[in-house]
Amino acid sequence: MKAFASVLVLAMVAGSSQAITISSRPIGSDAGYQSRAVTQIYNGQAGPYSAFAAAGGAIGFDDYTSTASGASTTLASLVFVGGVTNAGETISFQFFNPDNSLAADSGSLALPQGGNFIWTITFGNLPDGSDSTFQIPTAGILQLTVGTGTGRWFLTATPPTIGSNNPTFGGGSQTSVPFNAFSLNAVPAPSSLALLGLGGLVAGRRRR
After folding, report:
1. CATH topology for 5-28+36-207?
2. Ramachandran area for residue 96 (φ above 0: left; ψ -120 to 50: alpha; else beta)
């Protein structure tokens, strides 16, 4: 089994058609590089993990409240723990508003390898997704559905470290592992990007 995989695809994204990079790393590996051009607004992917048996159709849904401001934000990348049983099987991700109405942007793609990993779905043409146009609610619901084949979305008993989540959401029986494991990285607002640039300039002057 491959430890890492990365592939560039053109996914079906409602509202826009843009390149999407899919990469994976083994469960239990380090979080890896985090670009300064994107901001982690929700982190709920910490283990330990458990999961139901692999199944087709909807494999899970969970609420999230991110640290982003406003009603919506631009998603640079989605990270989730799980996967499909066989390479080439498809999975879709749908974002819902707090009132359960479907948000404008959603997508479906084929994962390049079978097995359970920490998957990173990056939107846009740049490696970090900083040019993404994929819009999601700042607080809402994420649902994952396997379109072909079977798959799993892992659960965790560890509360989010960034943002928050209602552990009783959905009324499921998995009371000891109430959270689905995923994280959201957003493209900062232009004013935030300007502050990042200013911080880099000040740091550069201090080094001289």
Report:
1. Jelly Rolls (2.60.120)
2. beta
